[in-house]
Q: What sequence folds into this?
């Protein structure tokens, strides 16, 4: 089911992902962030669904289906570095801060700040080509949602 996407993610230099794969890759990265602290809460699931609905114009059932696929992909996906680089190649530079805000939104949705989530998000921001300041601004915007 995910063979082509996984093959792309495992390539030495990930290529630009087509839209359906980029959509799934983003959802899977959101799932990975949510699972990082060892707690995959209902609030995080709801936030992921809401993000993919807003970002991709999906209805609730389509969003839930995409998230379920993303949960499977996240389990089988390669390391976060390759995953994030593939997303970077599929996302215009001016849209990367919005991606970061979505990721912070998921991480903060359970009401807990976790050191592992913070570490992962710092690494993802860097891989997306965002500065610490840009990531912090994205976190602040996510915190006021």
A:
């Amino acid at each position: 089911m995910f063979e082509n996407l996984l093959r792309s993610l495992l390539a030495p230099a990930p290529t630009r992902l087509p839209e359906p794969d980029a959509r799934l890759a983003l959802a899977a990265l959101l799932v990975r962030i949510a699972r990082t602290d060892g707690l995959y809460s209902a609030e995080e699931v709801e936030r992921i669904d809401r993000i993919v609905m807003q970002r991709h114009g999906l209805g609730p059932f389509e969003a839930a289906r995409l998230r379920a696929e993303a949960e499977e992909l996240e389990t089988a996906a390669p390391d976060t570095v390759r995953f994030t680089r593939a997303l970077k190649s599929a996302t215009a530079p001016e849209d990367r801060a919005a991606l970061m805000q979505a990721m912070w939104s998921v991480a903060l949705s359970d009401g807990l700040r976790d050191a592992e989530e913070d570490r992962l998000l710092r690494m993802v921001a860097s891989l997306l080509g965002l500065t610490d300041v840009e990531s912090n601004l994205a976190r602040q915007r996510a915190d006021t949602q």
The chain has a mean pLDDT of 86. The two ends are 34 Å apart (CA to CA).
